[in-house]
């Protein structure tokens, strides 16, 4: 009898809570409508077209099953685009995180010109990726007129074909992306650092903690929420990258720095193969969900480690 009474009481509380929150839920209705129109419906259309031979122009199309998906897995250039996109997203996320945290700690310390240094690093992320790509294309030019090759020639070294070889072209795209974004994410970490009470550091100094101990036991645990936000932004931004590789290398040499977004536009729109582009977008969506889920799981593990 007591158990039945407890269950009824719990059910009554849930019903009351639902009725109390119902007016607030109406405020979320416009967001759900916009989300459904701009995301859910296009996603369902993409999945539908991916199993057809739709070319984007004619309404006369047929169901062809999973033929588009088998075409993707048999095309080395599309797999190359998928692998480089994942490589770019993962490597830039790790490098920027490893560089932005110590940079933020440095910018948070008392030093001469601190405000100017903060503004300078933040400015690196302000220009558009397309403009930065064009500027660095001149710097990394494989010709002797390139800035870096001129520097190498001035000290007696041979020029390097920076953007003309697969390995160096990928290296250049990733390095420019790190250079461009590290200041912005350091500013994000800086905001979290300024919320840490200074008394914690003073008390740790009194207890004999050195600089590394203070960083490991005070700074890093307090930065875990910021690390979650920063890595999520980096990972999602890296997976949908388009501007920087397109302007810096044009996807070359060959297709070595071609990204999945470039491949979707090229196959789906430029070559009028909308169905294949839809299949590629569907696979890319699944890959994004898996990568983001793994990243969030890793971030949760990091949070529990420093809790």
Automatic annotation (TrEMBL):
Domain of life per record: Bacteria
Pfam families xrefs: BPD_transp_1 (PF00528)
Subcellular location: Cell membrane
Record-annotated ABC transmembrane type-1 domain positions: 82-295
CDD domains hit by this protein: TM_PBP2
One cellular component term from this protein's GO annotations in UniProt: plasma membrane
Signal sequence extent: none
Membrane spanning stretches: 21-51, 86-107, 119-139, 171-192, 274-294
Classification via InterPro entries: ABC_transporter_permease, MetI-like, MetI-like_sf
Main location: membrane
Keyword terms of this UniProt record: Cell membrane, Membrane, Transmembrane, Transmembrane helix, Transport
A Gene Ontology biological process term: transmembrane transport
Family: Belongs to the binding-protein-dependent transport system permease family.
Family matches, as PANTHER family: ABC TRANSPORTER PERMEASE PROTEIN, INNER MEMBRANE ABC TRANSPORTER PERMEASE PROTEIN YCJO
Name under which the protein is recorded: Sugar ABC transporter permease
Species in which this protein is naturally found: Bifidobacterium fermentum
